[in-house]
Design a protein that fits this description.
The complex is a heterotrimer. By secondary structure, chain A is mainly alpha-helical. Chain A contains 18 helices and 2 strands. Helices cover 71% and strands 0% of the residues of chain B. Classes of the chains: A mainly alpha, B mainly alpha, C mainly alpha.
Chain lengths: 501, 168, 511
């Protein structure tokens, strides 16, 4: 099979799956079969592509121009392959989980749910494989629009309100800033939007003011990256069913955001231009502020999903921070964070969902002692928490290490302190949950009976356990991942002191 | 100064009429008066064009005996296939031959069309007024507006009632 | 490709007379319809006439594209210009003719069910007669190369439009005052235009547009030319619903019969805009300092004001048709902004948006017509829950609505993108921000309807609700799919717009 075909298949397959789900809507078992089979097929395709990328090939697909200079083009580089790999791989796990969750909860409109999910995956694949900013923007918006019905899934007033804020924030930032930045880039770069190694704008004469404004427009325009002050859509999106929060708002959507930030910093600006851009520092500060503030807010939240949402906001800022560091270690740290955080956070969300299905509980204060009844769920939660905190041998360790390295090399000595403080805050807001659940203080009330007879469906328990296991695996394969990503920063200046450990 | 003003007396009159008619068309509450204003405005335009076409010392643009090509049978004034430049040259020569000065006939012709348009507009407008009178019982713009407000309020109330019945 | 094959298969006479047949066919058929004994017969004849018009428009486009200079000059009655009236079609008006005739064709297909519901049976023939006269007038405005002839056609279309709008009185009597207001405003607009033409005639002694254009460079700075120019801009601006001369539009759109609303929204303002472009760029030269000042101090601010103010007004409308009408004025603002940039890129962006706007507004108003037919209500509350009972109508509505917002993969996105590029290129980055802001307002007003349609339960479940008839669904979906298709591959409309801009500005504008 040619690489062109594989890319086309990766983009189209989710749409075909969506059509298949629609056709099989009347028969739930068949419908879920289509989802599972489709997600596995998609993963297989992405694995194929990833192997080709790691062999040094650059799969490309050129479809045509919408207008002169605005082409639909796809080009898969290592960073995109990593994102596509993570998103499609976790889709399989999440599909199994969704079945358990949606059936366990007796949700309505399940067909619409699975259709929109598949379309959202199409958006994520498109973002990962886009060959220019125009294509990326289109799939970015597909991702926004297709997830709107998912967030509004419940249909009650709260869900509609949350979904409206979700849509307006994401559309508002993307149309208001991202699109503007894109048009500006087009004019600056001479009617071109391609992702170029070393940066599209590297040979363009720009005043520092122009470059700064452009960078700010990009980074805030990519609202999916949830950099403060455009973060509030994420907590509002938590009205969605948990599988949506798990895959989309911990993996696909938010990672599409930070991935886009990475792409812009690497392939539109390029490290040289970026380092010469004054607003880079400001955005780094914003990322640090986001890390600290979001963690502090997370501490105050009693609703489990809300706490996880703020935790996500803080963790996403790591990637933005890495991108803004604009050196090898920073970019590598950011890329690793995309994978490591995805695996850990999806685990946490799936645990939250399992708890909700079994007991109907959403508040952390009600979960004391619950670990006695659902030990596996809370063990998975515990492992994922440790990974987020960054304790070896778990995946979350590496990104923090690399980011600290990168920051020190750049002379931003205060950044490591922010990261260490963030780890401490992680401990404070994550660890009490599993510990209190597994080892309740003596004398506390015994937890409520299960709402659903038999507790959580086994699929909703197995899935987080599996991803918790992945946290371990990822720790040990970081070296190959680093090698795999190396071509992405081939042009970023190589500092001999910073090697992949 | 006075010469400048008096030389253009026709235009001043036209401008005055134009302003008056515009004012009527905008400010009158009675629909018929509005239409009168509009008609007056169109008539003023006709005056404007005709004034433009007047050539000092010129007579009505109907060829007099002396200027009619004698002896020859009637020929169309222009060869249809003639090139533009030739054509202009040819017509220029013809004007030079004329014994009398004539006013420009073209604006008159244009205004014939404009008058037809004006009449059509006037009749459509009057027909509309008849229908408005049938539907509203008045031809005062502010009364019509008040009635429309009432209708809108009524419709809202009805929808509200319907809603209450449906939810009950 | 289709056009080329049409060109090959067309008979000789058709190719020779195509340009002039576009307005003449409906003009000749119209009086026959008034005599037609049966409404259905009249309807079928209308479809045939508009189809023929569309065919000739395609043919004209093909001829324009295949002739080297890109200009068809057709002397009416074989009287050579500049003395005789000339039909002069280049890439710019070929595009407009195509839009008008194409929309007329689609509108006449779905006319039948809406007429049955909204027009008394014995009046159908007369109604269609007025419709065809309107088509003829609009095509005439777009085709003619004579300044005074343009006025005549403008009045033909306007007079028939007043009548058509007033026909809405069988459903809502408010159509009558709306039509009357439109009559007053429209006639004043046309009169202003004709005064302006008078001034120019007084100075140049000719009415042929190309001839006026040839004589104007010698008259730079002439006061009479400037005054005439101002009158023409105001007159055509009024017809094009340029803010703040748009007051007639919302009521006229809201109360006229569905067919009329759809057709007018898709074509009428576009034709006036075309005339504006013709005067601004072909007849007057944009490098004329006076005109530069006009662009910067008048047209651009007015376009922006329309975009922002009318989008705001649209957000607060409860009637979907009024909301879309305000949105129309806002969209005209985009086009005027594009024109006011004055570069080839800007005009071509404006023209592309003009084309796309015809597609989306046509689809939106057609979908609303469908709701009107089956449900008799056009407030947002009436739309609640229709997504379930009329999924096909409402999905098409949603597609066109997203296109109006400018969501990627729809036609509206690409034209706004083009506009943004042109603005950035010209250094008007502040205008880009306002375009973007106005798009966000579009998210609000379209979003309100879409949310009601798809995410709210029906307010009054006892009212009759079902899918629109097939005769409406077919043209509706043609437009909706066109919105998507031209959002993915815009080479056809973008090519038209580019050629149109070159035709308007002259070849050297490309450099």
């Amino acid at each position: 099979m040619t690489s062109e075909f594989l890319i086309a298949a990766a983009i189209c397959l989710p749409l075909i799956i969506a059509a298949g789900i629609a056709a099989a809507g009347k028969f739930p078992n068949l419908r879920e079969g289509v989802t599972i089979a489709g997600s596995i097929a998609l993963f297989a395709i992405v694995v194929q592509l990833t192997m080709r990328v790691s062999a040094g090939e650059v799969p490309e697909l050129y479809i045509g121009e919408a207008l002169p200079g605005l082409a639909f083009a796809f080009k898969l580089e290592p960073l995109g392959a990593l994102f596509a790999f993570v998103a499609s791989g976790l889709w399989i796990v999440n599909s199994f989980y969704s079945i358990g969750y949606m059936r366990g909860n007796r949700e309505r409109n399940q067909t619409r749910f699975y259709i929109c999910f598949a379309i959202a995956l199409c958006g994520a694949m498109g973002v990962a494989m886009a060959g220019n900013l125009f294509t990326l923007f289109i799939f970015y918006e597909i991702l926004t629009l297709s997830t709107y019905p998912l967030v509004a899934h419940k249909g009650d007033a709260a869900a509609q309100r949350g979904a409206r804020i979700y849509l307006l924030t994401l559309l508002g930032t993307s149309i208001g800033f991202f699109l503007t930045a894109m048009m500006w880039t087009w004019v600056l770069a001479g009617q071109n939007l391609d992702f170029v190694d070393g940066g599209l704008l590297q040979h363009v004469e720009m005043s520092p003011v122009v470059a700064s404004s452009l960078l700010i427009l990009f980074v805030f325009g990519i609202g999916k990256a949830a950099l403060m002050p455009f973060h509030f859509w994420l907590p509002n999106a938590m009205v969605a069913p948990t599988p949506v929060s798990a895959l989309l708002h911990a993996v696909a959507v938010v990672k599409a955001g930070v991935f886009t930030v990475m792409k812009v910093s690497l392939y539109i600006f390029g490290d040289e231009v970026l380092q010469a851009t004054p607003s880079r520092e400001f955005l780094m500060d914003m990322a640090c502020v986001t890390i600290v503030l979001a963690s502090l807010i997370a501490l105050t939240k009693d609703n489990l999903k809300a706490r996880l949402a703020y935790s996500t906001i803080a963790q996403l800022a790591y990637v933005t921070l890495g991108a803004m560091l604009a050196d090898r270690a920073g970019v590598l740290g950011g890329s690793l964070q995309i994978a490591a955080h995805a695996v850990a956070k999806i685990t946490l969300f799936m645990c939250a969902g399992a708890i909700y299905v079994a007991t109907g509980l959403t508040n952390i204060s009600d979960m004391k002692g619950l670990g006695r009844k659902m030990p596996l769920v809370f063990i998975a939660f515990f492992i994922a928490s440790l990974s987020i905190i960054g304790i070896p041998p778990l995946a979350g360790d590496w990104p923090k290490y690399e980011l600290m390295q990168g920051a020190i090399d750049r002379g931003s000595d205060w950044v490591p302190w922010i990261l260490i403080g963030s780890s401490l805050l992680n401990i404070a807001y994550l660890l009490p949950i599993p510990i209190l659940a597994l080892m309740p203080p003596p004398g506390s009330k015994p937890p409520k009976e299960f709402k659903r007879p038999g507790g959580a469906p086994w699929l909703t328990v197995a899935a987080p356990l599996f991803t918790a296991g992945l946290c371990f695996v990822l720790f040990f394969i970081v070296d190959p991942i680093g090698d795999f990503l190396a071509p992405a920063f081939a042009t970023v200046d190589i500092d001999p002191e910073v090697n992949i450990p | 100064m006075w010469e400048f003003v008096l030389d253009r007396a026709g235009y001043w009159a036209i401008i005055g009429l134009m302003m008056i008619s515009l004012y009527i068309a905008f400010s009158a509450e009675n629909l018929i008066k509005r239409l009168v204003g509009l008609s007056l405005f169109q008539t003023t335009i006709c005056l404007f064009y005709v004034t433009l076409g007047k050539v000092t010392g010129g007579t009505a643009p109907i060829l007099l005996q002396e200027d009619t090509p004698s002896g020859a049978a009637y020929q169309p004034p222009f060869e249809p296939v003639a090139q533009d430049a030739e054509l202009l040259a040819a017509t220029g020569e013809r004007f030079a031959d004329l014994v009398y000065t004539y006013s420009n006939p073209l604006p008159h012709v244009l205004m014939l069309t404009a008058i037809v348009v004006g009449v059509a507009t006037l009749s459509v407008g009057l027909a509309l007024i008849v229908r408005i009178r049938e539907a509203y019982g008045t031809i005062e713009a502010d009364d019509v507006r008040a009635l429309d407000m009432e209708t809108a309020a009524l419709q809202d109330a009805e929808a509200e009632k319907e809603l209450r019945e449906a939810t009950a | 490709m289709i056009i080329e094959s049409l060109l090959v298969s067309a008979p000789d006479w058709a190719i020779r007379h195509a340009a002039v047949l576009i307005p003449v066919v409906p003009l000749i058929v119209a009086p026959l319809l008034a005599l037609s004994p049966s409404g259905r017969l009249a309807w079928l004849v209308t479809i045939a006439a508009t189809a023929a018009t569309f065919y000739f428009a395609l043919l004209t486009l093909g001829i324009v594209q295949s002739t080297p200079g890109g200009i068809i000059s057709y002397p009416i009655g074989n009287w050579p210009p500049p003395i005789g009236i000339e039909f002069r079609v280049d890439a710019l008006n070929a595009m407009i003719l195509l839009i008008v005739s194409g929309m007329a064709f689609l509108a006449s297909i779905f006319a039948w069910p809406t007429m049955l519901a909204e027009v008394r049976k014995e009046k159908i023939g007369l109604f269609l007669c007025a419709f065809l006269l309107c088509v003829s007038g609009l095509c005439g405005v777009a085709g003619t190369g004579d300044a005074f002839n343009l006025f005549v056609f403008l009045e033909i279309s306007s007079l028939s439009t007043y009548v058509l709008v007033a026909m809405g009185s069988s459903r809502d009597r408010r159509a009558l005052p709306a039509a009357f207001d439109y009559l007053i405003m429209g006639t004043l607009g046309a009169s202003f235009y004709i005064i302006g033409v008078g001034f120019l005639y007084a100075v140049t002694g000719t009415l042929n547009m190309a001839d006026i254009a040839a004589q104007l460079p010698a008259l730079t700075g002439n006061r009479a030319v400037q005054v005439g120019f101002a009158f023409i801009i105001v007159g055509l601006g009024l017809k094009a619903a340029m803010w703040p001369l748009h007051q007639w539009l919302p009521n006229a759109y809201a109360y006229s019969p569905s067919l009329v609303t759809m057709f007018l929204a898709a074509t009428a303002t576009k034709v006036a805009l075309y005339a504006l472009i013709r005067w601004l760029f072909t007849i007057f030269q944009p490098d004329y300092a006076f005109e530069q000042a006009l662009f910067y101090w008048v047209l651009a601010p007015l376009g922006i004001a329309a975009m922002v103010v009318c989008s705001f007004q649209a957000v607060f409308q409860n009637d979907v048709r009024r909301m879309l009408a305000y949105a129309s004025v806002a969209q005209v603002g985009y086009m005027i902004l594009g024109i006011s940039i004055g570069t080839a890129a800007g005009v071509s962006a404006g023209l592309l948006h003009l084309f796309n706007h015809a597609l989306m507004k046509g689809a939106l108003f057609m979908a609303v017509a469908g709701v009107c037919l089956t449900y008799q209500g056009t407030t947002i509350r009436d739309f609640a829950g229709l997504g379930r009972s009329a999924p096909f109508t409402m999905t098409a509505f949603a597609i066109a609505g997203l296109s109006l917002i400018g969501v990627p993969l729809t036609a509206g996105f690409l034209s706004k993108l083009q506009l943004g590029y042109a603005l950035f290129d010209h250094g008007w980055w502040w205008a880009v921000l306002l375009v973007v802001f106005s798009s966000l307002l579009a998210v609000f007003y379209i979003g309100r309807v879409l949310q009601a349609v798809f995410f709210q339960p029906p307010v009054n479940p006892r009212k009759h609700r079902k899918e629109a008839p097939l005769l409406l669904l077919v043209p509706l979906w043609i437009l909706a799919l066109a919105n998507i298709y031209f959002g993915i591959d815009a080479s056809f409309p973008a090519g038209l717009a580019r050629d149109g801009a070159i035709a308007a500005l002259g070849m050297e504008a490309l450099q």
